[in-house]
């Protein structure tokens, strides 16, 4: 199958053009871009698309999301991360979720993502009380069916809950501590065996699905698990995807547990290198940033989620200056409440303007677009195949209508994309050379039928989850006390905005 797009405005994000638009043609053959230029000849039988008045750009890449939260979208508000996790990632009273719910839940995320311009996602999947290969397969199958590119994980935690949160023994109720201490997480060996089986089963499915290794966070994983996971990631050349210092509570965790920051702990373990992607990095120190830059890690900036959960402002300019690769993500679908990457781009372009009066250090639109495309591909270790429009790369791209209200009047296209566009101008979404969204319609699946099926299942699911929420509410007062303590609220310390989180 061939597609020729003629006379379009092209935003290639490649080494030659960067974020400077130019006029030209794009020839797609099979799953890849065959030619970029002007006056290109269409092969026999090719689909011809008139690009006049259209913008062709790389598909957006959501570099950090948790599809498991999709059924809680719009459910929670005004909770810091640790409190919010009691209900979105409950530890008490859970049971395995049916595979069909997981399939539909994943499809819900993929539908919104594709229709708003995201061609590639990194989904860090967690299931409570434990994930099965069958559950992971349900998510993978949804992504395969709809036609999106995805890197998926089996989320790893092998440390007991009490050991993952500082001051838990000081603040959590004694009866809850007893119950939590009776719960035994899977071992490091169990997780490594699971990862090996998942890699064999899912990696490189349909040329679009990849598996990654995702130890949850250094405070939630033993050193044994972190190092074993890193060994697999290096062997398979896939990301080691983790979370570090999203909140002030987590910022207190490293010194409390290890006598050093969590980044320093990762460095000392030898698990800090260019194959590592770190979500958040809000509460990193200057030494942390230097270590991260020297290692060449990627950081996913989850700007909307960090605001909703009150986590703080990541020191993005410092990270970029140090040589860290920047990507963007929505984070969880109920700590952001959507999978829309254009929302994330706008928030990333605006938030840092209030973190410092030095406007030379604010993010510009080109930097934001790069983080949402090539930077995201780099974080998933697939920048050799996607993230920019280049000959030989996979044809993952968007066609937008420059005649839409979002581009009127047409000034700087990059500014329009970051500050004006919301996905409403998208006419076509192409992944792996295939048109998967055409004029707002998904071409591979019956969206209406899938969503109707999910609606029918939701009452029973929410009734189950409501009982789980009630059970985990027993921990809320203690977790709230830990949050107040780590943020200095019990000492009367004021919260002030700075260019790196809070003081």
Task: Quickly describe the structure.
This is Amidohydrolase. This protein has 503 residues and is α/β, with parallel strands linked by helices. 38% of the residues lie in helices and 19% in strands.
Structure write-up:
It is a single chain. The chain is an alpha/beta fold. It folds into 2 domains: 2-58 and 391-442, Urease, subunit C, domain 1; 60-379, Metal-dependent hydrolases (TIM Barrel, Alpha-Beta Barrel), CATH 3.20.20. Helix content is 38%, strand content 19%. It contains 18 helices and 18 strands. Strands 1, 2, 3, 4, 5, 15, 16, 17 and 18 form a 9-stranded mixed β-sheet that branches. Strands 9-8-7-6-14 form a 5-stranded parallel β-sheet. Strands 10-11-12-13 form a 4-stranded parallel β-sheet. The longest helix is centred in the C-terminal third of the chain and has 26 residues, at 447-472.
